[in-house]
Amino acid sequence: MTNKVSDQQGFYTSGQLQSEAQLENNLIAQLASQGYERVVIENETGLLANLKRQLEKHNKTVFSENEFSKVLNHLNKGNVFERAVTLRDKFNLKRDDDSTLYVDFIDQIEWCQNQYQVTNQITMEGEYKNRYDVTILINGLPLVQIELKRRGLELKEAFNQTKRYDKHSYGSGAGLFQYIQLFVISNGVNTKYYANNKKQSFKQTFFWSDKENNQITQLEKFAKTFLEKCHLSKMFTKYIVLNHTFKILMALRPYQYYAVEAIIDKVKNSVHNGYIWHTTGSGKTLTSFKAAQILTNLPKVDKVVFCVDRKDLDYQTAKEFNAFSEGSVDSTDNTQKLVTQLGDDTKLIVTTIQKLNTAIMKERYKTAMEPLKDKRIIFIFDECHRSQFGDTHKRITEYFNHYQMFGFTGTPIFVENVAKNQHGKRTTKDLFGECLHKYVITDAIRDENVLKFAVEYINTFKQHDTIRDIEVEAIDTKEVMDSPRRIEAVVDYIIANHERKTHAKEFTGMLCVSSVEVLTTYYDIFQQKKRAGEHNLKVGTIFSYAANEEDKGSDDFITEETTDMTGKKINQHSRDKLESYIGDYNAMFGTKYTTKDSKSFYNYYNELAKRVREKEVDILLVVNMFLTGFDSPPLNTLYVDKNLKHHGLIQAFSRTNRTMGEKKSQGNIVCFRNLKQATDDAISLFSDKNAKDTIIMEPYEDYVKSFNEALANLKAIAPEVDDVNKLLDEKAEFEFIRTYRELMRVFNILNTFTDFKFEDVEIDEQEYADYGSKYLDLYEKVKSNRMTEKVSILNDIDFELELIHRDDINVTYILKLLGQLKDIEPKEHEAKKKNILDMLSGDVEMRSKKKLIEKFIEENMPKIASGGDVEAEFKRFWEAQDQAYLHQLSEEEGLDHDKLKKLISSYLFTEKLPYRDDVVETMLTKPSILKRKAVSQRILDKVLGYIKTFVDGAP
């Protein structure tokens, strides 16, 4: 590593790597220079004393001990989310003299008028004693926790450390550390922030950036910009969203912040319109909600109207808005309701463009609407390139006198992709004016907010058994493309490759086709093959059954389908087909949906979307529905058998590129048509002409090369698998872990390619799995070190177990192999058995079960007559071992057996670790106070081991 010369703040130390303590001291010195008061707080006693002084200063009063006790009791209630609400509310304190004082915890109006302090090394004791790095206090409350790692160490370990502190000590004492709003993690070179959210993953940590999306990664510059006192307060008071549905905090990302700020500036200081270009998948709803919420609080704004252009998006958007601010949105069911809302004191309205158009046009609403013409109304349009290009835009601009319009889009309309209608050719700029903020797909991929695409072009004009990953010829006649023979070849391809593409169905897929007629052919073939036992995929579908469902608009706009058939001419054949398909769905999930009732059909739409998101549907088959405006992180593969281009192509592809865990490395696009030029053109249009390499994954051959290079690095450390055992010290083990992890990353990408086979790389499958077993051995070692609080450099590395975990290796799969083991020739028996045991060693979820399965093979398998009896015998064996383990645990530790089972049941139901007192309660003889912590932890570890072995993935 090259060391830089010492800079202004001393974040580098010349000639050597800067220590964590130096990094900490330099940060505190910088914050002090930026106006923070530096204070020394050693423990909770000091924290509470400081809180009293700061709240007194902030509220310009003095609390008696009794009064402060009341304040503290008020503060010490609820979880992180509930405390975030408390922070933003005032407390009605009844004083000792019976007067009332509204105690303010943070000034949200004048957000710079708060008290700012910085401290370090506060020690708190809960399950374990923890000492925190740097804490920022506002009005005495710890609202920002900064965890630092020395340069060269992994940032993710700082993230994991905040998770451990949350588990062990943030809730101890008065629980003031549960008021943390934001975490900051840094190793000096890289610095990220994220909200205090138990469900947060490392993928949801963010770099700050400037308005042009240039990342600010160095700690010094981050402290100068993001931790500047007024900006930090503004983030707390304006740009953290309290999601009431999931009870979590959400922090806006920098591009969302700049977009909202730009809209607010326009409303405050001009009468001009504008639009926000934020790429699909970047969190448009959260951005638009926050803009709407802040705008409703501006004194000169009468109404904020959020407009969508379809009933399904009306439902989805209103639901999400209500999730971000409970009860703030009352979605309008009819035009009369909209007119009423426009006339009453409702400040924020979610409605459809169609209903807004009706309210303006219809004579019966004229009297009620007339007074609104001169009101200051702000219109925010979701996906502003859709219905806005019709008559409605013109009517709104002619009807209202003091309006402003702001549009959001991931795919603007430019001169290059503009379509002509009765108003001529109009771009997004023509309708909305200037672009106020831009965050394109290349920005999002760089920031790891969305994933790259891996695009394969499949030739479907040869026999399907010779389908190869090559560019298809430009043949697109209806007779050829819609032929059942060709469609069957595509179905066979999907069946053969879907598990590979989706990592053994850990993710899901979508198949989009050119018309309802083609869709019915696809669906029927899938069902025929399922009945014939050729696959077990759960295929769901939905489409509108209006007349003339041929997909004529897909070259540019994805033709909008609707779930509302009221007043539309019905294509009876399409409706009958869909009714039959919904019948299959009803049989699969025990539901009773129908197309014969529009409300039931709408409910089917919403439940289907929910099941897709929850991975209960393997492949969703559509024409246009769900290709825009639908977010499902588990969806990683899109099969394309329709023509797409420009924004329609980007919108459809973008269904696959939401981030989700380490294993989802890209969105897979499998094209059964020649869309290569259309893909290149769309990427060029919506980013820049040189962006292709940023957005599209490299060719298969490049990943083979990368894998072999990573393998060479691994072999340089451990030439043979057994050499891992001979590594001299923890530094060598550290390098092995990091190197093997890089090999895993490349392998998980390689394994999604149709062409992948182990013959192409310089290691066979068995040896690769054996190295994986050694990786897991080291993980077990580090886990043991952490539990005993042993100091180790390996504690500073993250084990990405999501990458090594394989869902297809589970108890059911092993039972299938054991059945085969029983029926094979004796000479093959040992090799097969070794293969099974190696699989168990190489899978993180199955390791805990290895000894028991090995015992079953040795002791029970010889007594079983045939492979068909293995499963039943194994289940009997498993239940007996389960009960024996619990009895043994009760005997060894002196536990009440019934209370132990109750403790385990409670944990499985609540998913909350039992408190120490709960564990002690199961003991027949209670240990001394001094020994309780160690004994309780030992028993809890054994209970968790039991659950991992006998409950998780049980047969």
Structural description of this entry:
- The chain is of the alpha/beta class and 955 residues long.
- It has five domains: 20-249, tt1808, chain A (Alpha-Beta Complex), CATH 3.90.1570.50; 254-439, P-loop containing nucleotide triphosphate hydrolases (Rossmann fold, 3-Layer(aba) Sandwich); 453-695, Rossmann fold, CATH 3.40.50; 700-804, Methane Monooxygenase Hydroxylase, Chain G, domain 1, CATH 1.20.58; 811-951, no CATH class.
- Helices cover 45% and strands 13% of the residues.
- It is built from 35 helices and 28 strands.
- The protein has a six-stranded mixed beta sheet with strand order 1-4-7-8-9-10, sandwiched between helices. The protein has a six-stranded parallel beta sheet with strand order 17-16-18-19-15-22, with helices on both faces. It has a six-stranded parallel beta sheet with strand order 23-28-27-24-26-25, sandwiched between helices.
- 39% of the residues are buried.
| The CATH top-level class label of the largest domain | Alpha Beta
Q: Characterize the biggest β-sheet.
A: 6 strands, mixed
Low-confidence stretches: 1-16, 463-475, 551-556
Nearest-integer average pLDDT: 83
Give the CA-based shape: globular
Strand content: 5-15%
Strand order of the largest sheet: 1-4-7-8-9-10
Number of strands: 28
Compute the number of helices.
Answer: 35
- In the CATH hierarchy, what is the architecture of the largest domain at level 2? 3-Layer(aba) Sandwich
